[in-house]
Amino acid sequence: MMLPPQLITEIKQRRVLLFAGAGLSAALGLPNWSGLIDKMATDLDFDPELFKMLGDFPSLAEYYLLERPDRAEFGDWLRRSWHNSSIDVAASKAHAAILDAQFPIIYTTNYDHWIEHAYAIRGIPISKIVRGDDIADVVVGDAQVVKFHGDLDDPETMILTESDYFERLRFESEPRSETAIRSIAIFNPFRGI
């Protein structure tokens, strides 16, 4: 894939933010939404294929957490499933490219810790932002990893259900911590290529 020359220049000048979605983790062999649906549906004695056919993943997650309200338990399952010791993030070309590009801010919807582990392996410090309060701990000059849909270490922050998504979209009820996270995007506007 050829990147536009201006984008390459702006990456080198550290003026580009990266948005890393689920595809980044899927490249490491982690389950995607389909894998999560399998887990939730099976635990509830439902046919996972029915929910895949309907495409109503947030509703299944909503029902799952109504029936099994302990997000920490679900987070523990995700941690065990997604942080298998056989995964070698150092061998990931995508993660290496992210580190090589030296993005100042990385937005991710992934709950896992592989971006953070990739930085740690190379000894590069980062500031992880899960809640708005984390902004106060950002070290100037460190890359910032903004976990926009939450983090496995803090299951209450994980955006899983339909209600979680709707709550995230409601500006008027948004706590100040979420406003602080959004301010990163305001002061670092996104541009399409």
From TrEMBL:
InterPro entries: DHS-like_NAD/FAD-binding_dom. It comes from the Bacteria. Pfam families: SIR2_2. This is SIR2 family protein. It comes from Jiella pelagia.
